[in-house]
Write a structure and sequence with these properties.
Protein name: Phosphatidylinositol N-acetylglucosaminyltransferase subunit H conserved domain-containing protein
Number of domains: 2
Radius of gyration: 23 Å
Helix content: 10-25%
Pathway: Glycolipid biosynthesis; glycosylphosphatidylinositol-anchor biosynthesis
Family: Belongs to the PIGH family.
Pfam families: PIG-H
Oligomer: single chain
InterPro entries: PIG-H (IPR044215), PIGH-H_dom (IPR019328)
Order of helices and strands: EEEEEEHHEEEEEEHE
């Protein structure tokens, strides 16, 4: 299915129309191609579940730059924390006003609310991205809700192999994607804050293997 929309933009004394072309494919894959100020963006593939959304896009005109995003969908947690803090404070005010309890109860509830909000909403991560540039290296990005972005660049000649690791604990089992770095004793986690399922990690892993010329291998790690 192909659509074409035109965005009108003023440029000096004239107006320039830039087309936006949307191509929708079968299943959950989609392609989006737009031209806005000569910047191209293509969404090649996406997968979603209740907690995360994986997006493989092409932000830059060069096809050599491969970008993968893991986006957190747990937006409701923030509202739950605020609602809990409000209920605690409302109960404390009710006991103080109607039940004639001590004012210290209100102070303690305020202190509890502040600690709760700081503990649960401290540096919430909005998404983590992997920018693969085969000629240069891999850039790992962590985007916070506050707008702050943390970036870490790993040169391509330092990467020995990307590996998918199955971590088994007494209570859970999950997958991680790591980079084995030349001359380093510890591996670099690709996604440090989010734990997407293996069906999302495998797309990033295959892209990293292709960029580094590594064989696709997995391993299991017991904790």
């Amino acid at each position: 299915y192909l659509t074409c929309n035109y965005n009108l933009q003023n440029s000096g004394h004239s107006a320039v129309r830039y087309p936006t072309i949307v191509v929708l494919g079968a299943g959950h894959s989609s392609v989006l191609f737009g031209i806005d100020n000569y910047e191209c963006k293509m969404v090649k593939f996406s997968i979603s579940n209740a907690r995360y959304t994986y997006v493989h896009d092409q932000k830059y005109p060069s096809k050599d730059v491969d970008i993968h995003h893991i986006i957190s969908r747990r937006r409701s947690a923030k509202y739950f924390v605020y609602a809990t803090a409000f209920i605690v404070l409302a109960c404390a005010l009710y006991l103080y006003v109607l039940k004639e309890k001590s004012i210290s109860l209100v102070y303690y509830s305020l202190l509890f609310d502040v600690c709760l909000v700081k503990l649960l909403l401290r540096k919430p991560v909005k998404k983590e991205s992997v920018v693969i540039m085969p000629a240069f290296g891999v850039q790992l990005e962590t985007h916070y809700v506050s707008g702050k972005v943390f970036r870490c660049f790993v040169p391509i000649d330092k990467i020995l192999k990307p590996v998918l690791i199955e971590c088994v604990t007494p209570v859970t089992c999950y997958w991680t994607l790591s980079l084995i770095i030349r001359g380093e004793s510890e591996m670099v986690l690709v996604f440090k804050n989010l734990r997407p399922p293996v069906k999302m990690l495998v797309h990033v892993w295959k892209a990293l293997c292709s960029a580094t010329g590594s064989k696709e291998e997995t391993c299991t790690h017991a904790e």
